[in-house]
Amino acid sequence: xxxxxxxxxxxxxxxxxxxxxxxxxxxxxxxxxxxxTSVTAGDYRARSLDMPPGFKLVGxxxxxxxGPRRRVLGTEFSGLVEAVGEGxxxxxxxxxxxAYPGAAMGGYAEYAVIGEDGAIxxxxxxxxxxxxxxxxxxxSTALHFLRSLAGIKPGDSVLIIGAAGGVGSAAVQVARHFxxxxxxxxxxxxxxMVRSLGADAVIDYRREDPAAASDAYDIILDTSGTATYTKYxxxxxxxxxxxxxxxxxxxxxxxxxARKTGGRKAMGGYAAEPAEDLRFLAALAEKGQFKPHxxxxxxxxxxxxxxxxxxxxxxxGNVVITVNQD
Length: 326
Ligand SMILES: NC(=O)c1ccc[n+]([C@@H]2O[C@H](COP(=O)([O-])OP(=O)(O)OC[C@H]3O[C@@H](n4cnc5c(N)ncnc54)[C@H](OP(=O)(O)O)[C@@H]3O)[C@@H](O)[C@H]2O)c1
What we know:
Strand content: 25-35%
Bound molecules: NADP nicotinamide-adenine-dinucleotide phosphate
CATH topology of the largest domain: Quinone Oxidoreductase, Chain A, domain 1
Shape: globular
CATH superfamily of the largest domain: Medium-chain alcohol dehydrogenases, catalytic domain
Radius of gyration: 20 Å
Number of domains: 2
CATH class of the largest domain: Alpha Beta
CATH architecture of the largest domain: Alpha-Beta Complex
Order of helices and strands: EEEHHEEEEHHEHEHEEHEHEHEHE
C-alpha cells in the first residue's frame, strides 16, 4: 500500500512516499481503508520536533530519541472498515468509522489497523468522512481541559485564546454545548469564522488586549502559548481556572508558582485519548452541535504541502489529507 513516511525529524520535505505491506487485522482488530487523515499539532511536532522551550528532551522521549519511532504520521483518520479480525463484534466491513490512534499514529497510509476496543467509533451520519476525521484531536483536547479539568457548567463565562485553531475551534463548540457564554480570541481575518462556530463574542488580539478585562471569566483556555497567570489572573473571576493547553516549561513553572488568590487556579498537562471521549464527540456531531472546521484539503501525495500549510498564518481550523476518495 502507498504511505507517507519519514526517517529524520525536519521540515515538511522529510515526508516522502513509500510502499509498505498492507496490515492484516489480528484478533480483536479492525482494518480500515483510510479515506482521510489530518495534520494535527501532534503530527507537526512529531515531524519537526519543534517543541516548546524546555520540552525538547520530552519530545525525543515521546517520538523517538535518535529519530522517529513511528515512521508513518497520522494521529487521527476516518474511512471504511475493510476487514475485521477474529472475535470483532462492534464493527463489520463497510462501516464508516473515525479513529484516534493518537501517539500510535499510522493515518498517512491507505490502510491501518486499530483494536476494536480502542478509540474508534461509527462516523456521524451527518458528516462527510473528510470532516469527521477532524473530530478526535481538537475535540478530545477541548473535552479534557474544559470538562475534566475545569468542570465547565451552564452559564460559565469562557474565554478561548486561539479560537480559530485546531483545538480552539473545537473548544468554542464544546463550551457552547455545555451552555457557556463563549468569547473567542483570534486575529483580524478570522473573527467571522469564530462567530460562525457559535462564539457569543470575539476579540481581535491584534487590536485589543484580551487580558484587559477584570474578574470577567470563569474559565480561560489558551492554545496559543501566550498566557501566563500573571497576565490573565486578574481577568479570572474568583474560583476561575486558567487552562494552559500550550505552554513552555518556564512559563508553566512560573504560572504554577505564581501567588493566586480567591480560589483561582492555573492548570496544564496533557490530554489523553480515551475512546469514551470520541464516542461523546461523535454523538455531539450527530446532534449538530459539533462540526470540525476544515480550512484546507490536500491529497496524500502532497502531505508535505499540507504540513507547510499547517504553519500558514492564514490557515483556519483543521488541515485534512485525503487518501482513498472512492
Ligand atoms: N496539552 C495537550 O494535551 C495538548 C493537546 C493538543 C494540542 N496541544 C498544543 O496546543 C497548541 C495548539 O494546538 P492547535 O492544534 O490548536 O494549533 P493551531 O491550530 O496552530 O492554533 C494555535 C492558535 O494560536 C493563536 N495565536 C498565535 N499567536 C497568538 C497570540 N499572540 N495571541 C492570541 N492567539 C494567538 C493562533 O490564532 P490566529 O491564527 O488567529 O493568529 C492559532 O489559531 C499546540 O501548541 C499543541 O501542541 C496540547
